[in-house]
Amino acid sequence: MSEDAAGTRSRVLVVGATGRLGGSLARASLAAGHPTVALVRPHHLARPDSPSQRPLVAAGATLVEGSLEDYQSLLKAVRQVDVVICAVPTKQALEQKPLIRAIKEAGCVKRFIPAEFGADPTKVQIGDMAYDFYEKKIEIRHLIETEGIPHTYICCNFFMRYLLPSLVQPGLNAPPRDEMKIFGEGNTKGVFVKEGDVAQFTICTLDDPRTLNQTLYLRPPGNICSMNELADLWEMKINKSLKRVYITEEQLLKEILDAPFPLKMDLVFIYSAFVKGDHTYFEIDLLSEGTQLYPHVKYTTVGEYLDTLV
Ligand SMILES: NC(=O)c1ccc[n+]([C@@H]2O[C@H](COP(=O)([O-])OP(=O)(O)OC[C@H]3O[C@@H](n4cnc5c(N)ncnc54)[C@H](OP(=O)(O)O)[C@@H]3O)[C@@H](O)[C@H]2O)c1
């Protein structure tokens, strides 16, 4: 569904469109026929042919100058659209506050999709191990709900570009060929979704009343894997058995304590997904899962992704 009740496609503003996910969101929005505006910071506009802007322009996006620090630029951009999607990094999550204020003041936005795009921050069970990573997202959710802003939260779990290129082996930049670390007992399942697919599912929600003020979860069949299953799959692809080295929960917690940044955060996210089961331990309504709601979206499976690494 990408049309509203009147049969017109909503106009979309993407904040963060020069970024990796934001670029995919803007292109998916345009491909689905939504007139799409990209808020671009002034330093980009001086370089119209830059690699982050050229694909946006080629796809038909309208570029407008602005930033989260410039309230008037936000208000002006928000006034041109029906939907706002924000894709700034999580460390900047609280910088979305002026954007929320602009959405409230403009009064024309039918849907806001804040920068989340990870595990459900209200479900993770790792206490304060993630250094306010999830608390910031929860604070933004509270503000959105207190202000009565129509919204959809996208909980896609891991992007494939994060951790999967090494088969969840922090420090490696390709999958292992001889020995693989398995964190925990190896049977707890995490979820991986390709960024372009996250973008497509996100765009499907924009005019869909079923996702209004709801969370969209992504748990695509074929993309929900334990570490043992990832190892099995990879062994099949390379036609070779790997030595599996099991890292107990206790050992992993010690590694987290001793690790420098950013390795520490990788280990925390691995602990969250593959030991605590934060992507999958809770039941979700079928009508809140992307592949159930939008079966027409063709997505990349983990197996297909691993084929590209053989
Ligand atoms: N689930 C996962 O595995 C996973 C992994 C990575 C990211 N994510 C999520 O994906 C989302 C986007 O992350 P990303 O890695 O795609 O980000 P990214 O590539 O770093 O892009 C960030 C974008 O935000 C823009 N931006 C930064 N500060 C801004 C400001 N003050 N005003 C306006 N725009 C500003 C940047 O503009 P400039 O080009 O001007 O800098 C850029 O377009 C986040 O919600 C993050 O949590 C999820």
TrEMBL record:
Residues 9-306 form the NmrA-like domain. Signal peptide: none annotated. Keywords: NADP, Oxidoreductase. The keyword Nuclease does not apply. The keyword NADP applies. Pfam families: NmrA. One of its GO terms (molecular function) is oxidoreductase activity. Transmembrane segments: none annotated. PANTHER family: PINORESINOL REDUCTASE-RELATED, PINORESINOL-LARICIRESINOL REDUCTASE 3-RELATED. This is NmrA-like domain-containing protein. It comes from Panicum virgatum.
